[in-house]
């Protein structure tokens, strides 16, 4: 078959990343019905037909690779698999080049201590009053340690076309879960929340599973929204003042969870399902609307005065952040540095620091602008630590990391150069007969660091 030759069917690599002009083999009726033609998927894509007209992007299908290993401590690598609900175009983008997805081994390069493979595990799952199950520390976990790395098992593009009905959405979800390594275990995750109605509607078991557990993940250049289901971290409850932080890496399709505070043995490990800077009212609405539960975390159940103090700090934080950015935009860098001091006081008071890794680049750049290289360096180091925490640096994540590394290297050079100059100036001054010290010329930074994009 000509197409089989030119279009690369049967090769044990991603045939969906096909040569232009070649049909995706499974959509071509003449394509051979053999597993090699579906690679890297272990099942033929299951597509639904819709009554209404669809966009040019093609039908919606579920693509499954049920053999993809998934490392869940303490089970080790198990074939959990991955199902992706998308159009062939989306599924064949390099984003889903799952054949090259680095697995847990790659995480050994993390500068954070990685407890996700520790023996015995640093956590256990047990019931928690009013919340179903929860995850509890089995030993002390100091701040900044990786607790768990969990790979996505079901990814569903959120923007289904208008022509697609509930029936088809449910069919794709059902097949996607059914074909995975352990569908029973996954369906069991839905029960924990004891919830089967959203806006008065009955939900299918898979819809319930996603409503109670899926994270929204903007992915790809266009930041298209996906729902992502994770088997292991789905037992971690939400807290508005969490002791752990989550970050999703597109490169690895893994969620990394690290301790944002020192966690005591027996303490529940919690993450935030909503943005960290929301006020209690805003959080309540988000949790109710998108997750469908009423939050009973320690902050939400705290005395009114405590909750109000927290709200005030979060509002003040938002105002301070806006002020810093405005001053920086107006090129008032000294003013912005002053304002950023206030900002970070608030961040520390509310314990938000570990959740706001990107933020540290702001004072780093501001201090650079006013020629305070040492403080610029301090903040860049901090922001780099946060970037590293994101998991395996690669593809998109690594851009921020590489930038920060480059800037740090230049800062080191400049600091060394300045010290050399200072020494030289001192020598020259000592040579001055009357001992009067000449004022050094005001230094200007040599490197323009550019705006954060
Ligand atoms: C991702 S699951 C977490 C694990 C779940 N508790 C279980 O038993 O499987 C999310 C569900 O847990 C419950 N939950 C999580 N955090 C909560 C909180 N702060 N307050 C009340 N319920 C919570 C809600 O029912 C929510 O829909």
Span of the ends, CA to CA: 49 Å
- The ordered H/E elements are HEEEEEHEEEHHEEHEEEEEEHHHHHH
Flag low-confidence runs. Answer: 8-18, 192-196, 444-453
Largest pleated sheet? 8 strands, mixed
Number of strands: 16
Radius of gyration: 26 Å
Structural class: alpha+beta
Question: What does this molecule look like?
Answer:
Helix content is 35%, strand content 18%. The protein is α+β, with helices and mostly antiparallel strands and 453 residues long. The longest helix has 37 residues, at 395-431. The chain has eleven helices and 16 strands. Among the domains are: 1-39, no CATH class; 49-275, SET domain (Beta-clip-like), CATH 2.170.270.10. The protein is globular. The protein has helices spanning 2-6, 88-91, 166-178, 183-191, 205-213, 280-291, 304-329, 333-349, 361-369, 373-388, 395-431; strands spanning 46-48, 60-65, 69-72, 76-79, 82-86, 123-128, 132-137, 146-157, 197-198, 201-202, 215-219, 224-230, 237-238, 244-249, 254-259, 268-271.
Topology summary:
Blueprint: H1 2-6, E1 46-48, E2 60-65, E3 69-72, E4 76-79, E5 82-86, H2 88-91, E6 123-128, E7 132-137, E8 146-157, H3 166-178, H4 183-191, E9 197-198, E10 201-202, H5 205-213, E11 215-219, E12 224-230, E13 237-238, E14 244-249, E15 254-259, E16 268-271, H6 280-291, H7 304-329, H8 333-349, H9 361-369, H10 373-388, H11 395-431
Parallel strand pairs: 5-8, 13-16
Antiparallel strand pairs: 1-2, 2-5, 3-4, 6-7, 7-16, 8-12, 8-15, 9-10, 11-12, 14-15
Helix pairs in contact: 4-5, 7-8, 8-9, 9-10, 10-11
The site of S-adenosylmethionine has 19 residues, from strand 7, helix 5 and strand 13.
